[in-house]
Amino acid sequence: MQTVTMSRRDIIRGLAAGSIVIIPAGCAYNEELGRSQLLFVSQGQMAQLAASAWTDLKQQQRITNNPKYVNRMNRVAPRIIQAAGHNPADWEVQVFDSEQINAFALPGGRIGFYTGILDIMDNDDQIATVMGHEAAHVNFNHSGERYSQSTLAAAGLTVAQVATSDSRYQREIVGILGMGATLGVILPFSRKHELEADRFGVRYMHRAGYNPNQAVRFWETMSAMKSGAPPAYLSTHPSDATRIAQLKREIALLN
Questions:
Q1: Which of 38, 150, 180, 187 has its CA 20 to 30 A from that of 141?
Q2: 208 near 128, Cβ under 8 Å?
Q3: 197 Cβ contact partners less than 8 Å away, ≥ 6 residues apart
Q4: What's the pTM value of the predicted model, to 2 decimals?
Q5: Which of 31, 92, 99, 134 is flagged as catalytic?
Q6: How wide is the angle at C-alpha 73 spanned by C-alphas 71 and 75, nearest 5°?
Q7: Up-side HSE of residue 189: CA atoms within 13 Å toward CB?
Q8: Residue 123 burial (CB count, 10 A)
Q9: What is the pLDDT of residues 135-194, one digit of tens each?
């Protein structure tokens, strides 16, 4: 996978000056995903960037030692990590003591679950649903792609500012481009990433011996708990109906 190691500031300055073109250099076709990815940073570089954030997070938030949560994660996480093609010894999974109904992945095989999300999970299969989803985010360097997308969007806005000499229109044009970049590029790619993580995550849980139908049950539970969600086109996540429909299609291919 070809990457560009220039800093974000260098990329933006180069584009504004017209001295570099980064799109061809940063694009690589991912056979497994079946699409091209715009990547200016490698997985290793993203892992280095995430290392300090992970250390800070563990210092700022309380890690639970409650066997009620830890034992469940210790049963599920290694099986999913191995099914995703990695050595569990190389990854770190922590459970944070918080009522947040959430989980997250950081580059370098760092996964965080909150006790709040474990409290609504009926069984290990539902833990495997989310664990597989987060492992897929790591596998496909989605964080690196999001970083690259935001870098390109910022560079485009800088170009617009340089190219627009009339100050009366500069603010208006940059504002329009900013909204266009957000709705047209950054959010759709985030939704694409979420659906990819769902699709490959259910494959990992199936490969690890878990019941993929529980992925649907989990997201139905999540959907029932929500109220007042923003329209899908203004969200970084797809609608629950969209992801449930995709999961059902994917599961049908597994059976």
A1: 180
A2: yes
A3: 133, 134, 136, 137, 140, 142
A4: 0.76
A5: 134
A6: 70
A7: 23
A8: 15
A9: 999 998 888 888 777 776 665 544 444 444 455 544 544 454 455 555 555 555 588 888
